[in-house]
Amino acid sequence: xxxxxxxxxxxxxxxxxxxxxxxxxxxxxxxxxxxxxxxxxxxxxxxxxxxxxxxxxxxxxxxxxxxxxxxxxxxxxxxxxxxxxxxxxxxxxxxxxxxxxxxxxxxxxxxxxxxxxxxxxxxxxxxxxxxxxxxxxxxxxxxxxxxxxxxxxxxxxxxxxxxxxxxxxxxxxxxxxxxxxxxxxxxxxxxxxxxxxxxxxxxxxxxxxxxxxxxxxxxxxxxxxxxxxxxxxxxxxxxxxxxxxxxxxxxxxxxxxxxxxxxxxxxxxxxxxxxxxxxxxxxxxxxxxxxxxxxxx
Length: 297
Fold this sequence. Notes:
Oligomer: single chain
CATH topology: Purple Acid Phosphatase, chain A, domain 2
CATH superfamily: Metallo-dependent phosphatases
Strand order of the largest sheet: 1-12-2-3-4-5
Radius of gyration: 18 Å
Shape: globular
CATH architecture: 4-Layer Sandwich
Strand content: 15-25%
Helix content: 10-25%
């Protein structure tokens, strides 16, 4: 089986074979974020409830195309949308071994602390926040440096945790899963992630208030119960290369099923962001970086 890195390298070679296409995929598309909007009403959503969710995912700060100055621009771009919530879906750090020249965690966390939303700013962590954190890999447990930096900056990190919140749309539950592939090394008889879906759902009362679930990887949506009105994910980058609505390589066991965009299955809704940074290889083609705005109700 061809792994994702090798497949992306092959695709990169094809793109770079033509200077114009390669230049676009490397220098232009990854540096020009857009706002992608979705508007729909999930099942069991209150008829009079309207809510705007701004989603930031997969920044990969310190990697190609993502200096701290660009994080500042993305924060300003997001604040202009005037969302009720800002939801951060993980992978804050570059997808490689950390370097001495990388920005300190506190520096980029301070930039993200400037995000503004009346109902709050909440985060989950992604696989690279675990993979590029040597102590957590060695000990197979947290906390991660990314999580500590976010909390120190005043941003609540939801790791297998659910909160009941009062919002402009009425009460709702906001929940976040631990990462599903937190550990690089797989050990026989041990779980590879820190996610606990049953434990997270057990915190949610049967009170009729809708549930929004944050989960970095979208694969968990296949087993998400109907109690969860909306699942929000990143991780895939939309494949980072997308041709006519199809991605050749998607880091998901489900392939293109959960690669990108708004998915509705069995009355349940999922939105997968293409994210903002790049992973493995510094290119995007046909899937620009994006801040996502989901308008509910």
